[in-house]
Design goal:
By secondary structure, this protein is of the alpha+beta class. The protein has one domain: Winged helix-like DNA-binding domain superfamily/Winged helix DNA-binding domain (Arc Repressor Mutant, subunit A), CATH 1.10.10.10. It is 40% helix and 17% strand. It has four helices and two strands, in the order H-H-H-H-E-E. A hairpin with a 5-residue loop joins strand 1 and strand 2. Helix 2 crosses helix 3, helix 2 packs across helix 4 and helix 3 crosses helix 4. This is MarR family transcriptional regulator.
Length: 94
């Protein structure tokens, strides 16, 4: 498990205005994780929401171009290698 996201960073309102509540929460926690990113299990853990609820929100964020596969993989609780998601603008230093 990765360390908890630290600091408080707010995404600009324009960047999140068309997102649902769980999408906004998921995006915020992945953004706070920075370049180390988060898996779906880790995102669910930090939000204290079931992974089965968070996974579709991450897929939606990917479809909207808000997050991307970092290329990294980490083992989840079941031992499977899971995608590590990062905020898309993290690659541009933002």
């Amino acid at each position: 498990m990765v360390d908890p996201p630290s600091g408080r960073q707010e995404a600009p309102q324009a960047a999140t205005e068309h997102l649902g509540r769980l999408q906004r929460l998921s995006l915020a926690v992945v953004r706070l994780a920075g370049p180390q990113g988060l898996t779906a299990h880790e995102t669910a853990y930090w939000l204290r929401i079931d992974r089965a609820t968070i996974q579709p929100r991450l897929s939606e964020l990917r479809s909207k171009g808000r997050i991307t596969d970092s290329g990294m993989r980490r083992r989840n609780a079941s031992g499977r290698r899971a995608i590590v998601w990062v905020v898309r603008d993290a690659f541009a230093g933002g």
